[in-house]
Design a protein that fits this description.
Radius of gyration: 19 Å
Number of helices: 7
Largest sheet: 6 strands, antiparallel
Order of helices and strands: HHHEEEEHHEHEH
Helix content: 40-55%
Strand order of the largest sheet: 1-2-3-4-6-5
Number of strands: 6
Strand content: 15-25%
Structural class: alpha+beta
Shape: globular
C-alpha cells in the first residue's frame, strides 16, 4: 500500500539532476529503490485498481517509467532521468496516439492529469472539424473545466490562431497537442496516502475528457 513519498524522494531527484553519472547513482541506488521506485509502483497499483474497477470499459494498463534513459536518445544528457512517471493507458499496442492518465514526480514537485501528447496532426484536425461542426460537446467539457480550479489546459500551440466556433473554445483550437494538468509542491499530501485519494478524484473528473479524445482515435 502507498504510504507517501518522503523528503528523500526529492533529495534523490535533485541529486540525480546535478550528479547524472553512474558512480553517484550506484552510491544512492538504495534510496532510489525505497524512496522513488517503490512508492511510484505502489501508487500506480492503487490508481490502476481504482480505475479498472470504476471504468472497466476503458481497458487500461499500468506503466511505470524506468529511471534509465534510452541510450539511443541521450542527446548529450546523462544516463538517468531526473523525473519519473506512471501512466494508465489503453492496452492496445498502438497506444501512443491515444490519451493517457498520468502522474509525474520531479525535483520541484509532482503533476498529474490527462495527456494527449502524441496525437497526430490528422487527429487534431479531426478534433477541430468536429468542434466546428458541433461545438456542444466541447463546450460542455470546457465549462466543466472552468467550473473548478485544480486542472488547467496546457499544450504546444500554433503561432497563428485556428478558426474557432466561439471565443470560449479558442484555446482548444490552437493546440497542436495538449494536456489537462494539476501541479503540486512537496507537502503533507505527497507524504501520505491522501495523495492516492486526490489523484483518484482527479482521474474521475477527467474521464469525460479522456472519452472525448479516445473517440477521435477510434475513428482513425
Amino acid at each position: 500500500m502507498f504510504t507517501g513519498f518522503t523528503e528523500q524522494t526529492a533529495a534523490f531527484l535533485w541529486g540525480i539532476r546535478f550528479n547524472n553519472e553512474r558512480s553517484w547513482f550506484e552510491a544512492n541506488k538504495a534510496t532510489y529503490l525505497s524512496a522513488v521506485q517503490q512508492p511510484m509502483r505502489e501508487l500506480g497499483e492503487e490508481l490502476y485498481d481504482h480505475m479498472v474497477a470504476a471504468y472497466p470499459d476503458l481497458w487500461l494498463n499500468l506503466h511505470v517509467s524506468r529511471i534509465y534513459r534510452d541510450a539511443r536518445r541521450l542527446h548529450g544528457r546523462g544516463p538517468y532521468k531526473d523525473h519519473l512517471w506512471l501512466s494508465l493507458r489503453h492496452e492496445n499496442e498502438d497506444w501512443t496516439c491515444r490519451p493517457v492518465f498520468y502522474f509525474e514526480i520531479a525535483p520541484e514537485g509532482c503533476s498529474y492529469g490527462m495527456g494527449f501528447y502524441s496525437a497526430t496532426p490528422q487527429t487534431m484536425e479531426r478534433f477541430r472539424q468536429e468542434a466546428m461542426a458541433d461545438p456542444r460537446p466541447l463546450t460542455a467539457l470546457t465549462k466543466r473545466l472552468h467550473g473548478q480550479r485544480l486542472f488547467h489546459l496546457e499544450g504546444e500551440t500554433y503561432a497563428r490562431e485556428k478558426p474557432s466556433p466561439s471565443p470560449l473554445l479558442q484555446p482548444w483550437m490552437n493546440c497542436k497537442r495538449l494536456s489537462i494538468e494539476c501541479s503540486l509542491p512537496y507537502d503533507e499530501v505527497l507524504f501520505s496516502h491522501a495523495l492516492v485519494e486526490k489523484v483518484q478524484a482527479g482521474f474521475d473528473f477527467l474521464v469525460p475528457f479522456y472519452r472525448h479524445f479516445s473517440a477521435l482515435c477510434q475513428q482513425a
